[in-house]
Amino acid sequence: MYALSSTLIRPALRQGLQVAAASRQVSLKVVSVGSTVKDETFFEKNERLGRQMSPHLTIYKPQLTSMLSIAHRGTGLALGATVWALGLGALIASHDINHYITMIEGLQLSGATLTAIKFIIAYPAGYHTANGIRHLIWDTGSFLKIKEVYSTGYIMVGASFVLTAILALL
Amino acid sequence: MSMSLILRGATRCNAVNLAKSARLTPVKAYSTIFAGAQRQALAKPLPLVKNIAPIVTRNISVSAPRMASAESSHTALWTVERIVSAALLGVIPAAFIAPSQALDALLAVSVVIHAHWGVEAMVVDYLRPSVVGNILPKVAHVGLILISIATLGGLFYFIKNDVGLANGIKRFWAIKGKDSQEA
């Protein structure tokens, strides 16, 4: 009798509770403010307890989203470093730019080599521009669903190569 | 036994009646928004609950976390950052298609401030006080400001005293290979 009632009561009770929960009114427990305020932050507490941090970058599977995002940051940093080199170089260099251009011409590189070098130099600009447009589109609120993030991601990588090719051939 | 009661339709199939008929101990009573009215609402048929229970709103004071930052709102700067990024899409082609000192200066300012904000975001993200201590983030911030000012100064010097920014890059890009160089 007990076994029978327990197998019969619990599902019925669960169903009844589910039906009741569907139209349940929310109840709140009122407590004093002092009991909720903590003295230390989450990080201070874990430092005090001497806890190690869980692995993150070493275990997380690389995905298109994260890889394209860090590439956007990396290409941005590369472009920024180039701008810094140009600006700071202009301050400390002892000659004008024609001098340095003549120096590079003196290397006598082949046309193909030069185009290849120009492609490699221009790729960060092409990628950062294409992904930058993708970011600005996100900022308008569009194409934020995960499928759209992936499809625009692939389109963007293709566009970055096209843009870089155009720049390298200019 | 309680199941047979339900099958006979003697009581309505809801949680309260199930609990009553199975002689289970009642759940702990919390203080609720609907003081008193809720117990009655549960006993009545469920579809009518919404009509019966009055909706009482109560302002609950949620104390702000004590470690909450006191910084000002970032939203205006965010919008300016996006405007500069979008403007760069127009300024860069314009400066190269129609080189002039004015467009070069506009290009230099836009690129330097865009790069400054970008690297500043990296400094804020990666040089965290909990990881690198308290001094390095501040030093990095000041260093970044100095680099940006120096870069802008160098670019302005270049625009004024040399061939100009767009023309300089064009000349660099126009370096010919030994195949097409004149002897």
Characterize the structure shown:
- Chain A: It holds the Pfam family Sdh_cyt.
- Chain A: InterPro entries: SQR/QFR_C/D (IPR034804), Succ_DH_cyt_bsu_CS (IPR018495), Succ_DH_cytb556 (IPR014314), SuccDH_FuR_B_TM-su (IPR000701).
- The complex is a heterodimer of chains A (170) and B (183).
- Chain A is 70% helix and 0% strand.
- Chain A is mainly α and 170 residues long.
- The N and C termini of chain A lie far apart (88 Å).
- Chain B folds into two domains: 2-43, no CATH class; 75-181, Fumarate reductase/succinate dehydrogenase, transmembrane subunit (3 helical TM bundles of succinate and fumarate reductases, Up-down Bundle).
- Helix content of chain B is 62%, strand content 0%.
- The longest helix of chain B is centred in the C-terminal third of the chain and has 27 residues, at 135-161.
- Chain B is elongated and about 100 Å long.
- Residues 63-68 of chain B have low confidence and may be disordered.
- At the A-B interface, helix 1, helix 3, helix 4 and helix 5 of A face helix 1, helix 2, helix 3, helix 5 and helix 6 of B.
